[in-house]
Amino acid sequence: GRGGWVLILIPCGNVTAETRLPPSCPGFDPAAQMKQAYALGLNVIVRLEPQYSAYGSTCFGGPGGWVLPDPTERWAGHLRATHDTGSNYTRYTSVATSYAKVAASLPRPPHGGKLAVQIGNELNLAWGCDCTADNVCMPMARVAAEVAFFSRDAVAALQAVPGLSVALTPIAPIGYAARSCCHNTSECHRVAANVSDCDCPGSASVTLTSLEFGKLLLLAVPTLYDTVDWFSSHAYPCAPPGCGLNGDPRPGTNGWNAPFEVALPWLVVYRNETREAGRPTLPVIVTETGWCGDFCTEADRAEWTAAAWRVWVADPQIVAVCPFLLEGRQWWPKGFPWIAADGATRLPVFNATVALRCQLFPATC
């Protein structure tokens, strides 16, 4: 409804060291999408993708899903490749300048407010810089340091552009080191297509929660969050001690897709994240959250989501919540969407959330 929030990826491709928007997926015009959202009375968050592998360089919902378009492309080192020459991966001012130029070209909200900009997405998943150029795995602390250096420079460049409200990359509930240390290109394709961990020879897997990775970011750049305007959080329904960590052997579980009562501490994980960042009152937008329909009933999804929304609506720190995924293709047969694959059928989770909104905010209906 009017006044709602939507997340738009800018672009479906890589932000490069150019002064314009890079080529987008066929038929994808982010500026036109933003204008359409404004016309519907919606608030827009744009996600500027860094130059990093499968998520940043392919089209969502394209043929074959999330796969690498270039048979010679490997996952390793794409974020690292954007570092300033001679900086030893500690400065990223050139690509940060590109971010600023791209953001400056985007349409602003018609009501005169600032445009919310998010830098990248879930960089603790190490899509971009968990290996050296020769595919040698790096310690997770080094991965976090390079993400922090990149983020620091991107924030500085974007905040110099008038009319922007800037947030850092949200941290995934769980991150995997060495996920992209593949030594075999065909294996990289298999991994990308299945969105699973990388088991290539020489790879070692280390898991860190969002809070643990956040500590590593701050060790590298203690002032990282000092000037950001808002906090982007991926408050997914995890079971203690965290998503991917509780040992549940059932497919799609292992801490994921926990019932509302069990997941509540992680549904409000942004409280700990912002406290850890030294900004406990920083405004928060939950830019991804949701239950997967393959591992609970549609009735459960609807009930648990409405219960979570009641918590978020009552939290003064929350500005907005964006579901993952309102509508779109993905890797599970049922997955996270609130609207069926036909693009029209509203699933129970959609209807339950709309009903709650109308109950709490009748003027929006």
Task: Jot down its keywords.
365 residues, alpha/beta, 4-stranded parallel β-sheet, 3-stranded parallel β-sheet, 10 helices, 31% helix, 11% strand
Description:
The chain is of the alpha/beta class and 365 residues long. It has helices spanning 30-39, 53-57, 93-104, 140-159, 185-194, 210-220, 260-267, 269-276, 298-313, 348-360; strands spanning 5-10, 43-48, 115-119, 164-167, 174-176, 207-209, 231-234, 284-288, 318-321. Strands 1-2-3-4 form a four-stranded parallel beta sheet, covered by helices on one side. Strands 7-8-9 form a three-stranded parallel beta sheet, with helices on one face. Helix 4 links the parallel strand 3 and strand 4. The radius of gyration is 19 Å and the shape is globular. Mean pLDDT is 78; it is low at 12-25, 52-77 and 177-204.
Can you describe this structure in just a few lines?
This protein is α/β, with parallel strands linked by helices and 365 residues long. It has helices at residues 30-39, 53-57, 93-104, 140-159, 185-194, 210-220, 260-267, 269-276, 298-313, 348-360, and strands at 5-10, 43-48, 115-119, 164-167, 174-176, 207-209, 231-234, 284-288, 318-321.
Q: What is the total tally of β strands?
A: 9
Mean pLDDT: 78
Main sheet: which strands, in order across? 1-2-3-4
Rg (C-alpha, Å): 19 Å
Q: In percent, how much strand structure appears in the residues? A: 5-15%
Largest sheet: 4 strands, parallel
Q: Give the H and E element order.
A: EHEHHEHEEHEHEHHEHEH
- Shape label: globular
